[in-house]
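Can't paste images in this forum, so I'm doing it all in text. The chain is below; anyone willing to post the predicted structure tokens underneath?
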Amino acid sequence: METDIPLRDIMVREVVKGDRDLNVMEAARLMKKYDVDSIVVLNNGEPVGIVTQGDIIRELVSKDTTPSTVKLKDIMTTRLITASPNDRLSNIAKKMATEKIRKIPVIEEGKLVGIIADMDILSVSSEMNSILAELIEMNVEREIQGTGSEGEGIGQGICEKCGSFSNDLVMKDGLMMCETCKEEMEREAE
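Text version of the structure:
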């Protein structure tokens, strides 16, 4: 994965946000309307928290609480971990892993300018795998005759067929794929 990419190049700029006094029912409607699984909570225009679908399930559904009676400020994660648009992707990926979070709002001069999610990082990783696959295919001549052939293991990354992470990707029909997808493809060809 390219590690020197600034967040501004891959962050989502249209962020679903709501005031801390917005009730959870309205927030859930916004999340559904924009097909997202979180909402950044604002207080006087400044980001102060985040509410995810998991928070709603954990705090309301599991306790059989009516969403229209609860405000975002009551269930938001308040230690808001943020990033800058100039932060590097590798640093943020490490921060997300360390903090065990899936989304980080991107703040510039106190204003919410974007959000980065674990899936955004995976998509960049997947694109890099595609580029790597093309480079491998282009490199037909090998230092040692007979290496680099179709089906040979090429390392770890995201399978271009199923999208899952694998420690043992192989090249098959121009795609980097996990062993399971390779075997499936071979069975289908029979």
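The longest strand covers residues 165-172. Residues 139-149 have pLDDT under 50 and may be disordered.
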